[in-house]
Amino acid sequence: MRALWITTLATLAADQVSKAWVVQGLDLRTLGRIEVFPGLVEFRMAWNRGVNFGLGASGSDLMRWGLVALAVAISVWVIWWVRHEKLGARAQIFAGLLVGGALGNVIDRLLYGAVADFLNVTCCGIANPWSFNIADIGVFAGAIGLALFTGPSSGPTQAQKTP
Fold first, then answer.
1. What are the catalytic residues?
2. Which helix (H) or strand (E) holds 74?
3. Where are the domains of the chain?
4. Nearest CA to 97 among 136, 64, 62, 128?
5. What does the alpha-carbon distance between residue 137 and residue 157 come to, in Å, rounded to a whole number?
């Protein structure tokens, strides 16, 4: 479980430190937009009151607290699952990315009432209208990693279990 906790804390810290630096330190809240690598990466302030890409963004307190409860419930379940199934270090790392990211966005909802998104990547002449944050990267990478690298084929087979 050590890999899960280290990854959770590292993801949570990277997310919260980056948000403090960009949103407050660079005053992105006021500026709204800062070019980092023109035509590729910019900081663009977006307050996400919904789920991914702002889906379900009603701005209501019910939605806010419902999303907080859902993220906490999923995090608790993932931790229980990893522990119960005695998953290896790779699965623990993916679980830590997911849990750290989910908790990073929970902290935002508690502090600001919405998730602070600020990263915007554009490529190849295609303008990306959405912003995201390090927590979002953690949730996405963790979920994909858990889906790809856990399950029946990731543990010992029945033939390996029986002597």
1. 117, 136
2. helix 61-84
3. 2-151
4. 136
5. 32
